[in-house]
């Protein structure tokens, strides 16, 4: 019997290879080489992609910021001040004559009056009788003068006949002249009394606005009674603005101003009409007096704020978002030639709807970070995106 013993291990593989034939054995090295080449190409591609990915990541880490170059703009220089309101020309009104009992008070605070208008009436019964007495004395003096004139005329008619001497004529002429003089004296005394009576009433010295009243009917007033009324001549008001000596040096009469009383939202146009020639040595401030027209909201004794235009000049104007501040003061971030952030300290001026004017620290030609300045740090590299200032 013939028995076939099964082959195992390497002998079996050898039999398989041999049975595969010469064609199969020829393609096996080629397939292995192609596999190795594919692996090499894959490694090369992966190595080329790594720097690009690194570059993209670095680009993503550099933030983009909007920058502006504002240049120079015409900006009004202003001075801010606070102070009290008052009448521009305040007129205290009191007793001019001898005084007496007040019978009527004809005006109230807030009333407009004309020049010479009666504010209060004083009782005058005694003075009226005195005027009547003086008027009667005038009539007596006129009668005496008339009699003296008649006697003189008769004497002149008799002097030609020799009955009256020239000395008698002179005597009668003197008597007539004295009588006429007494008439003039009596007339003057009556006029004086009437003038005194006219000064009994308290009258407005000029047209204006009554501010205060300090008298009541029945009150006895005299030359020592003090101020009974206070008036603003013409109703003109003013603000006594307290200004530091540095700012006061920039102000001139004629500078325009806007006055805003405390407690209201209205502003009133005014004009500086006087700048104090002295400085208070205690607070180093002076007074700029701003004339404003009458308005019910402007009350003497009240408090107000004022913005005074002291002139104009050229300066950079920035949006508020570009200006940062800390304990060192105000600053902005500018972009250098290498696109790195740098801090620039500035001094700000007037803040208006147009933006923040810069007094010093900028020429206006720098590349200034408009927004996102709070998220940047000095020396940080950024990608600037330029935008023209409006």
List the helices and strands and how they pair.
Layout: H1 10-20, H2 22-61, E1 64-68, E2 73-87, E3 90-93, E4 100-105, E5 112-113, E6 118-122, H3 125-159, H4 166-200, E7 202-203, E8 208-213, E9 220-221, E10 229-233, E11 237-244, H5 245-248, E12 256-261, E13 268-275, E14 285-292, E15 303-318, E16 324-326, E17 329-335, E18 341-345, E19 347-352, E20 355-360, E21 368-369, E22 383-386
Parallel strand pairs: 1-22
Antiparallel strand pairs: 1-21, 2-11, 2-15, 3-10, 4-6, 4-9, 5-8, 6-7, 8-10, 11-14, 12-13, 12-15, 13-14, 15-20, 16-17, 17-18, 19-20
Helix pairs in contact: 3-4
- Integer average pLDDT: 82
Could you name the ranges where pLDDT drops below 50 across 5 or more consecutive residues? 1-21, 52-59
Element order, helices and strands? HHEEEEEEHHEEEEEHEEEEEEEEEEE
> Number of helical segments?
5
Look at the helices and sheets and give the structural class. alpha+beta
Question: Helical proportion?
Answer: 25-40%
What value does the Rg take, in angstroms? Answer: 53 Å
Number of domains: 3
User: What is the percentage of strand-forming residues?
Assistant: 25-35%
Cα separation of the termini = 112 Å
Transmembrane segments: 27-45
Domain CusB-like beta-barrel: 241-309
Domain CzcB-like barrel-sandwich hybrid: 99-225
Organism: Sphingobium cloacae
């Amino acid at each position: 019997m013939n028995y076939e013993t099964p082959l195992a291990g390497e002998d079996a593989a050898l039999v398989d290879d041999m049975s595969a034939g010469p064609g199969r054995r020829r393609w096996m090295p080629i397939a292995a080489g192609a596999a190795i080449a594919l692996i090499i190409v894959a490694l090369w591609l992966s190595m080329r992609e790594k720097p690009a990915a690194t570059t993209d990541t670095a680009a993503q880490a550099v933030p983009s910021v909007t920058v502006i170059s504002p240049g120079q703009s015409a900006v009004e220089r202003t001075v801010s001040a606070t102070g009290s309101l008052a009448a521009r020309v305040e007129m205290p009104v009191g007793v001019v004559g001898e005084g007496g009992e007040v019978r009527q008070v004809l005006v109230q605070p807030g009333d407009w009056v004309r020049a010479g208008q009666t504010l209060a009436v004083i009782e005058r019964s005694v003075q009226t009788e005195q005027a009547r007495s003086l008027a009667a004395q005038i009539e007596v003096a006129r009668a005496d003068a008339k009699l003296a004139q008649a006697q003189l005329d008769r004497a002149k008619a008799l002097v030609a006949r020799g009955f009256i001497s020239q000395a008698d004529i002179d005597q009668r002429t003197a008597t007539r002249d004295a009588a006429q003089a007494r008439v003039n004296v009596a007339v003057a005394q009556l006029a004086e009394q009437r003038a005194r009576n006219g000064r009994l009433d308290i009258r407005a010295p000029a047209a204006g606005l009554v501010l205060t009243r300090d008298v009541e009917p029945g009150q006895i007033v005299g030359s020592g009674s003090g101020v009974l009324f206070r008036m603003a001549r013409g109703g003109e008001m003013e603000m006594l603005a307290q200004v530091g000596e540095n700012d006061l040096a920039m102000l001139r009469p004629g500078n325009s101003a806007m006055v805003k009383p405390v407690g209201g939202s209205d502003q009133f146009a005014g004009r500086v009409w006087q700048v104090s020639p002295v400085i208070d040595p205690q607070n180093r401030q002076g007074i700029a007096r701003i004339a404003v027209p009458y308005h019910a909201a402007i009350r003497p004794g009240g408090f107000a704020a004022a913005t005074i235009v002291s002139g104009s000049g050229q300066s950079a104007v920035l949006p508020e978002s570009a200006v940062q501040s800390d304990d060192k003061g105000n600053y902005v971030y500018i972009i250098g030639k290498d696109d790195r952030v740098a801090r620039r300290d500035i001094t700000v001026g007037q803040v208006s709807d147009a933006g923040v004017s810069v007094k010093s620290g900028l020429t206006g030609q720098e590349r200034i970070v408009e927004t996102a300045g709070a998220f940047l740090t000095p020396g940080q590299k950024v990608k600037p995106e330029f935008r023209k200032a409006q």
